[in-house]
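Hello support,

Our group uses your service weekly, and this is the first time we've seen a run hang past the timeout. The protein is Acyltransferase family protein. I'm not sure whether the cause is the sequence or the server load. Input pasted verbatim:
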Amino acid sequence: MAVADTTGAFRDAYKRRYDLDWLRVIAFGLLIFYHVGMFYVTWGWHVKSVYAGPAAEPFMLLVNPWRLALLFFISGVAIRFASDKAAPEPGGTLRFVRSRLYRLGLPIILGMAVIIAPQAYFQLRQAGIIEPGYLVFWGNYLKVEQLYPIITPTWNHLWYVVYLLVYILLIAPFLPALRWLANGSGARALSVVAGGPVRLLLLIIIPFVIYEITLSPSFPTTHTLIGDWANHAHRFTIFMLGYFAAKHEGFWRSVDRALPLAAVLAVGIWGLGAYVDAQEEMIAASSVARIPFIGVVEIALKTLYAWSCIVVLFALAQRFLNRPSKMLTYLTGAVLCYYILHQTIIVIAGYNITKLHLGAWPEFLLITVITIGGCVGGYEIFRRIPLLRPWIGIKR
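Update from on-call engineer: The timeout came from a worker crash unrelated to the input. Re-ran successfully.
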C-alpha cells in the first residue's frame, strides 16, 4: 500500500501504509474488547453474564457506529494496492483472486465447521435447549437439516470475512475498469467530494444517510448474506470508498487538514447525544419530538459522528503511526488469527466462569485475560504447524 506523509504526498507507489496497518490492528483489538463487552450488555448475544446490564452500553456505543466501517474501508485500500500490484503480471488478476480465496476462504470453512461450533453449543446450553454432550451436538450441527432454533452451521462473527470475500469476488471481473476509473474520472469526482475538510466530512456521508433512511427500516441487519441489503449497502460503499481513496493524494491531504474540525464534530455530537439521552423523557414530551424531519437529523448526526471518528483516526495515524516496528510486524501477521479465535474463547470462558459468581469486575478481567492469552497462545501454536496456518488465517 502506498504511503503518504502528513501532507498526503505519496513518496512510493508500493511502500506499505504502516498507519493503516496499525489502524487495522487497533480496530481488531477493539472488536475483541467489544465482544467481551457484549457478554455484559442487555443486547442480544450468544451467552450472557449473570451481571449483564446497561452499565457498559454507553462505552460500547462510542465505538459501535464506526468500528466495522473502519475495517471495511481499510480492506478496500488493501485490495486496491494488492490488485494493482498483481495486475502487470500475466494472469495477475486471476492469481490475486485465487490468493484471496485461499487467504479468506479456508478460514471460513474451518471456522464454520470447527471453531464456531462451540459458540452455538454453549448458546443453546445456556438457553436450556440441549443437554450436555458436545460430540452429539457437533454431529447435528454439521447436518444440513436444521435441528435447532438457530442456523447451523453458522459463521457468527466471521460474517465480516465472508462479506469481504464476496465483495472481492464481485469486483474481480471489473478490476481493470475500476483501476482505469480510479485513475481518471473517479479520481476527479473524489477530488470534488473530498476537496477540503468541510466537503470531506459532509458530502461523503450523504449515501450512508440515504441508506439509513430508505433501506434500514425494511432490511434490518442479519449478517446472513442473502437479504441483508441495508448492511451490504453500507459495507460495500465504504469498501469501495477505500478502494478509490487508496492512492488519492487529495483525499489524504483533506483527511490531515480535517483533523481539528472532525475532532470537534465527533466530541460535540457525542456530547449532544449524551445530553439528549439524559433528557429523553423531556424531549419525548416536547414539541420537538413531533417535528417530522427530526429522525432524519438524528440519522445525519449519527452518521457524521461515525465518519468524523474515522477521519480523526486516519489523520492521527498518518501523523504518528506511519512507521514500521517489530510489534506491528508481529501483530499484522497475528491479527486475523486472533479475530477468528477470539469470540469462541469469550463464549466458552464466559459461559463457564459466570457460574462461579466471582463478581462483575473479577469476572470481566478474568475473561479478558483468558481471551487475550488464548489468542496469543493459539497463534503461537498454529503458526508452528504449516498445514494449519492457512486454515486459521496465518500467511505462509
